[in-house]
Amino acid sequence: MARDSDAPVGVFDSGVGGLSVLGEIHQLLPNESLLYVADCGHIPYGEKTPEFIRQRCVTIAEFFREQGAKALVIACNTATVAGVADLRERYPDWPLVGMEPAVKPAAAATQSGVVGVLATTGTLQSAKFAALLDRFATDVQVITQPCPGLVELIETGDLVSPVIRQLLWRYVEPLLEARCDTIILGCTHYPFLKPLLREMIPSSITLIDTGAAVARQLGRLLNQRDLLSTSRPVEAQFWTSGNPENFRNILPVLWKKSDSVRFFGS
Hints:
This protein is α/β, with parallel strands linked by helices. The protein has 2 domains: 9-99 and 212-263, Rossmann fold (3-Layer(aba) Sandwich), CATH 3.40.50.1860; 103-209, Rossmann fold (3-Layer(aba) Sandwich). It contains 11 helices and 10 strands. It has helices at 19-28, 50-66, 77-90, 103-109, 121-125, 127-136, 150-155, 162-177, 194-200, 211-224, 244-254; strands at residues 9-13, 34-38, 71-74, 96-97, 114-119, 141-146, 182-185, 206-208, 237-240, 261-263. Strand 3 (71-74), helix 3 and strand 4 (96-97) form a beta-alpha-beta unit. Helix 1 (19-28) crosses helix 10 and helix 2 (50-66) packs across helix 3.
């Protein structure tokens, strides 16, 4: 598939969480045109089988290839765990970037030797996450905290209500009691809760997510292939397998404005 430097980059997530990654890409690589699919009709991925998630990854990847995307970003930890190896095998010449919880930088950052992880149950149960712990966290204590319900509230645009505040505190309190000085945001939805988290935790605690690292890796891959765009980008385009009106309403909260939102029916 021929790709030129002005072709767009495809980004997808099970829902709106990947918009946090999209924002980092837009900030670091402002000349890139961006396509985004929110697979809201099948959220949350964390409760689906790996085979189902792999099928969704292939369906969305094929759609982006039809749109002429020069690269693909899987802006979802759960989808990366289930599908990135299969996608790399299917499309060996296509630049692909996945997500993984930032265990390595967190292990390097901690002073207390205790790192907390807020993530979905699917991410925490994955073999890939276990391998990251084995590789990078041998000298630190890692406290993992599954966070059922957070993704669903963020999907509604609820970032400040008493309901999400109470739920988030229930998940954060054990990490504080364990004296974590570094907390990994192990889901692409969670960076949208940074302002709320900052109200709950001491300023000395470091929050780490991987959106900026993903943007840097995308830039490296595009640069290696001479695919970095130098033109003015076209406006970001959005698709959702859920209700386009719902997604249109949440975009100004989590992105910037209601760009075009179409239904993704595949």
